[in-house]
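Let's study today's protein:

:::
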Amino acid sequence: SDTTVHPNYSRYVWKSLTYNVYGWSFSSYDVRWGRYDGGMTGTIDNRGFGRFDLSPVPNGSDVTAATLGYTVYQQTVALPETTQVRVVPFDAVTASAESVYSGIGAGVLAGGRGQTTMGLNTVALNAAGVQAIEDRLVSDTLTIGWMYPGTNWADAIAYSYSNSSRPYIAITYGPSVPRDVGCTRVLTPVGVVDSGAVVTPACSVYNY
């Protein structure tokens, strides 16, 4: 039977990456994403990310579903455009800020939420996102990034709150599914073949 886990509290990192004309800045207080006018600094782009511990999910498991949850506590408006959720294919903790920022933009589009609201928001990851998580099991880490294309922004609760309010990833998985190939029908040769005759065998196969 399938098992669902929330593998986020034993090892986690939540940060916001901000890029403007003065360079990079970080925030560990919240996960901010979106864009806002910073006055003299011009337009400032924010991308947030969460790094999750995948060690509770055994390597080789068949991941069947995943849901991201995050709690928004302040925003400019109810974000009208889709917040993009992307899987970054490396460990954000050991990478540079610039690499993580660009990695969020280039990551696997795992889903999105069209109307970010105050309070708990959930995003069911699509097939590409589920596969990306399965591909990351051997590394035991998962980095998920938040992006917003519009001129607004939102903040999700991160470090300074109880575990129940922090971002989480709920992963449903089953045991590793063994794969095998079997021959279901011999196509050639058909009938009796003379000794010494040269034939090219062919058959129909099925992936079990």
In short: The longest strand covers residues 62-75. The CA atoms of residues 32 and 155 lie 4 Å apart. The two ends are 19 Å apart (CA to CA). The mean pLDDT is 79.
